[in-house]
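ok so i was messing around last nite and threw this chain in just to see what happens. nothing serious, just curious
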Amino acid sequence: MKNQGILLDLDNTLYEYSKPHNKGLSQVFSFCNIHFNISIEQAKEAYSLGRQKVHIELRETASSHNRLLYIQKMLEILKIPPFKYALELYNNYWDTFLEEMKLYDGVIELLEKYKGRVCIVSDLTAHIQYRKIQKLKIGKYIHTIVTSEEAGREKPHPYPFMLALEKLNLTTQDVYMIGDSFQKDIVGSLNMRIKSYWINTDQISEKYDNNLVTEVKSFKEILELI
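result:
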C-alpha cells in the first residue's frame, strides 16, 4: 500500500498497554493498603466495580475511560472521601503508567516515513493522550489527533475517521489505518472502505476483506510491505 498519510491508533498499537497499566494499578492498590489498611484484593474489587459502574453509566463516551472517575467510584465504594485522595491516586496511576511506556520496534522508522502526515485516532480523553505522545517523544512526527472526546463517538463509528480525514485533508483512498483492535480500528476502517494494517499479535481469527485488510504482527512487517 502506497498512500499519502496514515491514521494511527495509540494504545496497545504503538506500545504494550498491559505492563504500564498493571504497574499503575499496583501503585493505586498499594496506596490503599498502606494508607487505608485495605487489602490489595479489596481495593482491586472496589476498583473493578467502580470501573464497571462508569462503563454502564457512560457507555460509548470518552468519559467512560476516565481513570479519575474509576478511582472516585472505588473510593466511594470503600467509604473513603474521594475529594481528599482521588486526584492523588489518579496522578500516581498515570505518572507510573507514563514512565513504563516503551515504543514497539519499528514505530519510529514508520513515523519518519510519514512525518507530518500522521493522525492519531484514539478512544480516550485528549489530555492523557497528549501526555502519552509527549512522553513517547513522537509529537514531531504527528500532524494532528482525533480522540473520541473530540469526535463525540468511539471507534468503529465513522465520526473519528471522518474527522481525521478532514484534518489531514485526504480521502479514504489516500490513507491507511494501523491498529491492534479488530472491532475498533479494523471494523471502523472497513466500514469506511479504508485500507488497514491489523497488528494481530494475539493471533485472533476474524473474517475480513483481504483487499482492504493486511494482517501483520509488528511494525517491522509493515515497513517491509510499504
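not much to say yet. The mean pLDDT is 96.
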